[in-house]
Amino acid sequence: MLKIAIQKSGRLYEQSVQLLKECGIELNNGNRQLKVKAFNFPAEAYFLRDDDIPQYVADSVADVGIVGENVVFEKEKDLNIVSKLGFGRCRLSIAVPKNMNYQGGSDLNGLKIATSYTVLLQKFLTENNLKADIHEISGSVEIAPGIGLADAICDLVSSGSTLFTNNLKEVEVILDSQAVLVANKNLDEENRKILENLLLRINAVKAAKNYKYIMMNAPDHQLKNICALLPGMKSPTIVPLAEKGWSSIQSVVNENDFWEVIEKLKQFEAQGILVVPIEKMIS
């Protein structure tokens, strides 16, 4: 039985549960229980404070956990990051009042910086030969300069709207972060196999989000050009149409290249291009 630690509330909770659901792992946590057994997979979920997840996994109370990289690096536990999950993206940044004439890192010398991330902030200061007074607080870090508690802050930033509302500007990025799956380094053989099965499902879900399935009709004299453009997983699927000289082509396209590929397909006389989302993709 693989024990999975998940944030019980906050920005990663819903996406973590959704990821497991897309992996075919159903958790009935309607009553906000702290421990829930999966119906159709040898796993149970523990719903914990995000700051506690690295400790629980390191201590083998949980086998794996879904948590932000920022928390993993701040807690400094000896864990394996087995998969970057692609959601919960943010950055840990230093922000100063908008009216400060910030010229560079040396302007941080002598300032009082409020943060919940003392380890990462101190590491940044040390690596850049800077000296500042770190003031540790938990929650509502962004109001610290406005009430005279600190000169600057170090906190998580996603859209930047919270900084804007509090008359702050982002000046230094310490860490780019996203949700990751971490694992205890001493898993037994049985749970290691369950984790491998879980990773197979996670990778299939992640791959599907990065690709689109496309179908189209095209004249046969353009097949060579289109096949060169659409390698697919191995090569495109080509089926002759009832109309002589035409074929139906099916393939997958990387999301990052999608519109560029579509434009070139039109140049190669492709017609009736149909784009379909992929639910899972297993290589």
The CATH class name of the largest domain reads Alpha Beta
Largest sheet: 6 strands, mixed
Overall number of domains: 3
The number of helices is: 8
* Topology as a string of helices (H) and strands (E): EHEEHEHEEEHEEHEEHEHEEHE
User: Low-confidence spans: pLDDT under 50, at least 5 residues?
Assistant: none
CATH superfamily of the largest domain: Periplasmic binding protein-like II
Q: What is the general shape?
A: flat
Q: Beta fraction of the residues? A: 25-35%
Q: Helix/strand/pairing class, anyone?
A: alpha/beta
Q: Would you identify the CATH architecture of the largest domain?
A: 3-Layer(aba) Sandwich
**Quaternary structure state of the chains depicted:** single chain
Index terms:
single chain; alpha/beta; D-Maltodextrin-Binding Protein, domain 2; Alpha-Beta Plaits; 3 domains; EC 2.4.2.17; ATP_PRibTrfase_HisG; magnesium ion binding
Task: Characterise this structure.
The protein is an alpha/beta fold. The chain has 8 helices and 15 strands. The chain has helices at about 15-20, 55-60, 70-75, 120-125, 160-165, 190-210, 225-230, 260-265; strands at about 1-5, 35, 45-50, 65-70, 80-85, 90-95, 110-115, 135, 150-155, 170-175, 180-185, 210-220, 235-240, 245-255, 270-275. The protein is flat and about 80 Å long. The longest helix is centred in the C-terminal third of the chain and has 21 residues, at about 190-210. It folds into 3 domains: about 1-85 and about 180-210, Periplasmic binding protein-like II (D-Maltodextrin-Binding Protein, domain 2); about 90-175, 3-Layer(aba) Sandwich (D-Maltodextrin-Binding Protein, domain 2), CATH 3.40.190; about 210-275, Alpha-Beta Plaits, CATH 3.30.70. This is ATP phosphoribosyltransferase. Its cofactor is Mg(2+). It comes from Hanamia caeni.
